[in-house]
Amino acid sequence: MLNLGVSLIRELRCLGNQELIEVYYCGIRELSNKSIDLLFRLDNRLELVDVCSDYLARKVITANMAKKFQSWWIKPLAIYHTDVRHVLLLDADNVIFRDPAIVRSLDGYVRTGTTFFYDRVIPGKRFLTGNDSGEIYLHKLLHEFNYARFNVSDGYAPSQHMVDSFAFNGLTIHEMDSSMVLIDKARAGKAVMDILFWFITKERFRFKLSWGDKETFWLAFELARIPYFFSPWGISAVNSVPNEDIKKHPKTLCSGMLQYMPTSDPGTVTADVLYVNSKSLIDPYPQGFNPKRKVKPNNMFNMFPTHMTPRQGRKKSKNAKKKYTSECLVDMGSTPLPDYFAPRLLRRRLHFFGLSMGVLGSLEQCETYT
């Protein structure tokens, strides 16, 4: 994970981002002295934050609770903890193609101080659409949430976005993907942050509302009745070379989670790829090395993808005639990847492999090749 994270930091710098980067971790055992020395050696605009030790010392959480954040749940805890106003949360396995700070200049963030991205549409009766004492979880939450506890006007009053959402209408078990999250904490306000903290320290232990942390962000805004913004585009994907997507089913791509720039203004940026969340684009062993473990082809190292799902609004899941894995976007089409995709992916891989092999001089390389 360290090599993924450091190579992401280098890619941000190569894209021109010089903002302070906070690296959050949970407990002194999560980051060795050697790793800390490497991070500070390679970048002088980093701040390392042991959020669990800090909150333990201040008695905000217990030692047992702290262990529950040694996973992706550290992400919402980091947003709650940080003093940074304009938070831009990134997963280490994101392959980014634009400086993500540009998203703050787009209409959605300007209007609301947020930008969220959709997850895959997967029908079912789990998580947001799961059974909570005889009721659909999301519906019960909106009706029975203790609004007054957080100084929010009481009563059932879902936003129009909520009413129109696929999750509210029972079409998907996932609504939001949290591999990139943008929040202006000043505009979000205390109620949002307090509800977020309630989700990650109380509610998630009562009911498994999501696959990891992802739904807590937008739901905190919804329950606080604070406006928020989702990208107008549904999730896309790239083709999996090991899975032979283009050869076997060229309109159904099955690897990675591609997000376009979250704007519909043709005068700004049109159909531009912002990032792909996919460890299999970077790491030859994305699920670790175990000769006895069976790995699905679409989760294997994706050497040279050539196509992506075209930009389009969020769509209902299709009932395919054949069985696909949950990562596949069935019959949503394909279009060639932009020319800049391969050169920037190669640069990210160069940084990752340089770190993995101890050839740190490679991290100075920001040039791309055609």
UniProtKB/TrEMBL annotation:
Gene Ontology MF: a single term: alpha-1,3-mannosyltransferase activity
Protein's name according to its UniProt entry: Uncharacterized protein
Compartments where found: Membrane
Organism of origin: Plasmopara halstedii (Downy mildew of sunflower)
Sorted UniProt keywords: Glycoprotein, Glycosyltransferase, Membrane, Signal-anchor, Transferase, Transmembrane, Transmembrane helix
Keyword Isomerase included in the entry's annotation: no
InterPro entries: Alpha_mannosyltransferase (IPR022751), Nucleotide-diphossugar_trans (IPR029044)
A GO cellular-component term linked to this record: membrane
Main location: membrane
GO term, biological process aspect, one: protein O-linked glycosylation
Family of the protein in this entry: Belongs to the MNN1/MNT family.
Membrane topology: Single-pass type II membrane protein
